[in-house]
C-alpha cells in the first residue's frame, strides 16, 4: 500500500476487554469499583503523608509519589473504558489515543524509578541508619523524585512522537482496551522497526536495571537483617520491607511478560490483555493497602485522622 497518499484516521476503535459471555456487566461494574477503591486508597495515602508530621520521612514521600502515579495511571484509561462500555461507538480520537499512550507510559516508566528510590531509601535506612537523615534529606528526596518523573518523560517521549507521525491506512481498530504500543503499531503503516527497537531498549534499560538495583539493595538489606542480634528487631525490620517486595513481585512479573519482547507488531494480544488487567486494575488498588496493612505508622495516622473526623461531626 502507498502510505504517502494515506489519510490519517480521525479516530480509533478500541476492542475492549476480553469477552466473557454474560458477565460483561459484572466485569465493568468490578472495574468501576476497583477504580473508586484506587482513588480512595491512594488519595488517603497522599492526604496522611501531607498532613501528618510523623510521616514526613523519605519512604512516605516516595510512597505518596507512587500514589500520585497510581491515580494518574488508572485515570488515563479507566474512565474512557467505562464510557465506551456504555456507548454504542467504542471510539477514541486519534490525538486522544496518542495522549493516552503518552501518559500511560509516563506513569508506567516513572513507577519503576520510584520503586528503585524506595529500595534505595530502605537500603540506606537499614544498612546505614546513622547516615540516613543526612543522605536522604528533604532536598535530596525532592530532587530524586523530580528526576524520576523527568526520567519517565524523556524515556518515552521520542517513541510517542514517532508513533504519532506514522501512517494508519489499513485499519483503525486497536485490539486492546486502551492505546498500547503493540496494538497501535500493529495497525500502523510504514517501517516500525526503529520504534520497536527503541521501545525494547527502553524496557530493557529501565525495567531490568530497576529490578537489578532493587534485588541488590535487598540482598544487602537481608544480609544486614540476618546479622542483627535481636530476633524481634529482625522481624520488625523485615516487615517494613515485605510490602515493597510484594509490590515488586506483582509489578515486574506481569510487565516482563508483556513488554520485554523484541517484536510486538506481529504479536497476539489476547493473552497480553488478560495479563494487563493485573498491573492496570489490580496493582494500583493493592499498592496503598499492601504498604499500609503492615505499617503501624500509617495505620496510626489513619486512625488519628478518622478520630478527628468523628470528633468534628
In short:
The protein has 313 residues and is an all-alpha fold. It is 73% helix and 3% strand. The protein has a three-stranded mixed beta sheet.
Q: How would you sum up this structure, described in words?
A:
The chain is mostly helical and 313 residues long. 73% of the residues lie in helices and 3% in strands. The chain is built from eleven helices and three strands; from the N terminus they run βαααβαααβααααα. The chain has helices spanning 24-51, 58-75, 78-86, 94-127, 132-135, 138-164, 181-186, 193-226, 231-259, 270-293, 296-312; strands spanning 11-14, 91-93, 173-174. A three-stranded mixed sheet has the order 2-1-3. The N and C termini lie far apart (68 Å). 37% of the residues are buried. The mean pLDDT is 83.
DSSP, total strands: 3
Largest sheet: 3 strands, mixed
Counting helices, strands and paired strands, the structural category is mainly alpha
Helix percentage range: over 70%
Percent in strands:
under 5%
Counting DSSP H or I runs of 4 or more residues, the number of helices is 11
Strand order, sheet with most strands: 2-1-3
End-to-end separation: 68 Å
Shape: globular
The arrangement of helices and strands along the chain is EHHHEHHHEHHHHH
How would the blueprint of this fold be written?
Layout lengths: L10 E4 L9 H28 L6 H18 L2 H9 L4 E3 H34 L4 H4 L2 H27 L8 E2 L6 H6 L6 H34 L4 H29 L10 H24 L2 H17 L1
Parallel strand pairs: 1-3
Antiparallel strand pairs: 1-2
Helix pairs in contact: 1-2, 1-3, 1-10, 2-4, 2-10, 4-6, 4-8, 4-9, 6-8, 8-9, 9-10
Amino acid at each position: 500500500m502507498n502510505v504517502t497518499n494515506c489519510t490519517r484516521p480521525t479516530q480509533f476503535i478500541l476492542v475492549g476487554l476480553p469477552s466473557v459471555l454474560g458477565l460483561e456487566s459484572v466485569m465493568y461494574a468490578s472495574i468501576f469499583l476497583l477504580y473508586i477503591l484506587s482513588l480512595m486508597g491512594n488519595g488517603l495515602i497522599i492526604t496522611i503523608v501531607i498532613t501528618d508530621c510523623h510521616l514526613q520521612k523519605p519512604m512516605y514521600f516516595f510512597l505518596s509519589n507512587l500514589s500520585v502515579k497510581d491515580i494518574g495511571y488508572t485515570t488515563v484509561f479507566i474512565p474512557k473504558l467505562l464510557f465506551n462500555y456504555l456507548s454504542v461507538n467504542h471510539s477514541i480520537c486519534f490525538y486522544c489515543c496518542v495522549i493516552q499512550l503518552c501518559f500511560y507510559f509516563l506513569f508506567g516508566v516513572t513507577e519503576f524509578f520510584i520503586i528503585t528510590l524506595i529500595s534505595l531509601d530502605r537500603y540506606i535506612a537499614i544498612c546505614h541508619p546513622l547516615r540516613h537523615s543526612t543522605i536522604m534529606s528533604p532536598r535530596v528526596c525532592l530532587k530524586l523524585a523530580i528526576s524520576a518523573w523527568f526520567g519517565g518523560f524523556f524515556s518515552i517521549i521520542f517513541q510517542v512522537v514517532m508513533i504519532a507521525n506514522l501512517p494508519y491506512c489499513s485499519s483503525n481498530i486497536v485490539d486492546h482496551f486502551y492505546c498500547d504500543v503493540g496494538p497501535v503499531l500493529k495497525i500502523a503503516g510504514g517501517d516500525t522497526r526503529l520504534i520497536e527497537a527503541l521501545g525494547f531498549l527502553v524496557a530493557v534499560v529501565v525495567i531490568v536495571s530497576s529490578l537489578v538495583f532493587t534485588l541488590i539493595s535487598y540482598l544487602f538489606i537481608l544480609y544486614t537483617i540476618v546479622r542483627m542480634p535481636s530476633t524481634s528487631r529482625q522481624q520488625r525490620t523485615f516487615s517494613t520491607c515485605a510490602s515493597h517486595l510484594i509490590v515488586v513481585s506483582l509489578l515486574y512479573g506481569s510487565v516482563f511478560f508483556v513488554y520485554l519482547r523484541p517484536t510486538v507488531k506481529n504479536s497476539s494480544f489476547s493473552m497480553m490483555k488478560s495479563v494487563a488487567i493485573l498491573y492496570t486494575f489490580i496493582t494500583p488498588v493493592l499498592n496503598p493497602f499492601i504498604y499500609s496493612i503492615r505499617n503501624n505508622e500509617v495505620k496510626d495516622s489513619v486512625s488519628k485522622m478518622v478520630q478527628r473526623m468523628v470528633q468534628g461531626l
